[in-house]
Amino acid sequence: VQLQASGGGLVQAGGSLRLSCAASGRSFRSYAMGWFRQAPGKERELVAAIASGFGTYYADSVKGRFTIFRDNAKNTLYLQMNSLKPEDTAVYYCAGQYGDYYTRPNSYNYWGQGTLVTVSS
Question: For the chain, what percent of residues have pLDDT higher than 90?
Answer without folding.
Answer: 92
